[in-house]
Specification:
By secondary structure, the chain is an alpha/beta fold. The chain is 47% helix and 13% strand. Strand 3 and strand 4 (65-68) form a beta hairpin. The protein binds pseudouridine-5'-monophosphate (PSU) and manganese (II) ion.
């Protein structure tokens, strides 16, 4: 076992008894949602995964260790600590070696999941190519991680705060397949359609697992994006979210927000500008993804990879 890994009793037991494990990120808890809904949602998402026959492993950096699975107290601490650091690939060694409290992004969670031998990871939305990236060069490290780390990432697509077309182009260049579940369209997080299609529609967990196992069996390293649209009754009206997104982007620009602060700034502004309705949608889509991810983790057990 890797020297930096620390497994919760629940996850250690799952490993010992061969149960399927699903990784969960923690930046969504510390920087993606407000307290206390963040902790409440994290708990409920974990329970959905248990009810679906898999074991949840929320990942965070605490006390110089990569914690794979958090206790109630650790989850509470992470959700209620304003100084938890958003940890992507770049930040991982710093936060670990300094013994600081870190919440992992999609990129860092993929790295930690791979170290822990976990193949499936559930989140809300992945990072991507930001609008205006041709001058800002703001491209999330999540995409580069998907290009090299063997973890399937279940999400509800990417938010339209990003340039969705360029994000898909970037993934294609790096050989990252984008799978959709239940529809041909690649979803846009708050809404079910982005105007772009995914590469491949695979509706069942068995098909998704067979596809992913085949990719890795070929030695084609890197992740797979498994995108499931938010349930229709929870989706936001497109015109409303489009207008609010534009406003949030303009405010980020006016306030000179750059680097790792951009995504949390936009998420928080969208929540305020929708008077909390975006949060409700956000919670609903993560829960839906948890069901998809748990089924996938179980199906992947049939495929040694
Ligand atoms: N997109 C969301 N919600 C999130 C994030 C992205 O809809 O919480 C978080 C994830 O942790 C993701 C990170 O990995 O933001 C991307 O940040 P950046 O763009 O700085 O790479
Ligand atoms: Mn960025």
């Amino acid at each position: 076992m890797h020297q930096f890994l620390s497994f919760s009793p629940e996850v250690a037991n799952a490993r010992a008894t061969g149960k399927p494990v699903v990784a969960l990120e923690s930046t969504i808890i510390s920087h993606g949602m407000p307290y206390p809904q963040n902790v409440q949602t994290a708990r409920e998402v974990e329970q959905i995964i248990r009810d679906a026959g898999a074991v949840p492993a929320t990942i965070a950096i605490i006390g110089g260790k990569i914690c794979i699975g958090l206790t109630e107290e650790q989850l509470e601490e992470l959700g209620n600590s304003p100084d938890a650091i958003k940890v992507s690939r770049r930040d991982l060694a710093y936060v670990l070696s300094q013994g600081k409290l870190g919440a992992t992004t999609v990129a860092a969670t993929m790295i930690c999941a791979q170290l822990a031998g976990i193949k499936v990871f559930v989140t809300g939305g992945i990072g991507g190519v930001h609008r205006g990236a041709e001058t800002s060069m703001d491209i999330s490290a999540d995409l580069q991680e998907l290009a090299q780390t063997n973890v399937a990432v279940v999400c509800a697509g990417v938010k339209s705060i990003l340039d969705i077309g360029l994000t898909l182009e970037y993934l294609e260049t790096h050989g990252v397949p984008v799978v959709s579940v239940g529809q041909p369209g690649f979803p846009a997080f708050f809404t079910r359609e982005s105007g772009f299609n995914a590469d491949f529609q695979l509706d069942t967990a068995a098909e998704q697992a067979s596809f992913i196992a085949t990719k890795w069996a070929l030695g084609l390293n890197g992740g797979v994006v498994v995108s499931a649209p938010v349930p229709a009754e929870e989706a936001m009206p497109k015109e409303e979210i489009d207008a609010i997104t534009l406003r949030a982007l303009q405010e980020a620009d006016e306030n000179g927000v750059t680097g790792k602060k951009v995504t949390p700034f936009l998420l928080a502004r969208i929540k305020t500008l929708t008077e909390g309705r975006s949060l409700k949608t956000n919670i609903a889509l993560v829960k839906n993804n948890a069901r998809v991810g748990a089924a996938l983790a179980r199906a992947l057990q049939e495929h040694p990879c």
